[in-house]
Amino acid sequence: MSVAKTDDNRKVTTRRLMEMKQRGEKISMLTAYDFSMAKLIDHAGIDVILVGDSASNVMAGNITTLPITLDQMIYHGKSVMKAVNRALVVVDLPFGSYQGNSKEALASAIRVMKETHADCVKIEGGAEIKESVERILSAGIPIMGHLGLTPQSINKFGTYTVRAREEKEAEKLQEDARLLEELGCFGIVLEKIPAILAAKVAKERAIPIIGIGAGGGVDGQVLVMHDMLGINQEFSPRFLRRYANLGEVITGAVQNYVKDVKTGDFPNEAEQY
Ligand code: KIV
Fold this sequence. Notes:
The protein is α/β, with parallel strands linked by helices. The chain has helices at 14-22, 35-43, 55-58, 70-81, 102-116, 130-138, 154-157, 167-183, 195-204, 225-228, 246-263; strands at residues 27-31, 48-51, 88-92, 120-124, 143-148, 187-191, 209-212, 220-223. It has 2 domains: 14-242, Alpha-Beta Barrel (TIM Barrel); 247-273, no CATH class. Helix content is 41%, strand content 14%. The chain has an 8-stranded parallel β-barrel with strand order 1-2-3-4-5-6-7-8, surrounded by 7 helices. Bound molecules: 3-methyl-2-oxobutanoic acid. 3-methyl-2-oxobutanoic acid binds at residues 31, 50, 52-54, 92, 189, 191, 212, 222, 224.
């Protein structure tokens, strides 16, 4: 089994993700919503950047992902695409832009691809969005699926607890994963489900399975950047590993700046013309 190759500067494609799964190389994926952060994480060697509808939470301050619009997702997608050279960029289709009407789903996906220049889209759900998946794929637009905890359906479930613990729900999830692969999706995100179930799906499916709160037996991991960098400090589920505490770093830096401005220490002689 090989380790992540951050010195490999070739553009990541859906095909290369499949090859990574085949040779047992884990796939790294993070969210980004703006130019500066996308530039940093692409440069750091991330394989996949997700312009997630979690932008609704961490960028816009909404409680759920439901309010974010297609126009807003396109704005974030465009900003990210201007920064990225290597990573595969996936843009979430937002709530209301693909469920129920497959023609509208295709129109939404086409707008994302034309206006952002991203590589592909991600949508939540299984059998219930089959027609939308088929129609988007028929236009040559690659799709990443998303099963398990699907935040756009939060009002149906009423809770963010672990999904598919019950046998019936676990069976449906496995069925949906099989369907998405059969239809032609290039990968699937599994969110907040038991590790044993996620590992089983990853083993049974040929396409890459990326987990968030789904254990280590899958083909890759995704986290929300603001959570893993400690910018968003209010969210600390068990699955989250914090790699930095930027919240504290930023607060400290701003406090020092305020102090320096108030005391007249900033700007000094060298910092003026
Ligand atoms: O929008 C998002 O950030 C996501 C991840 C949680 C996978 O869909």
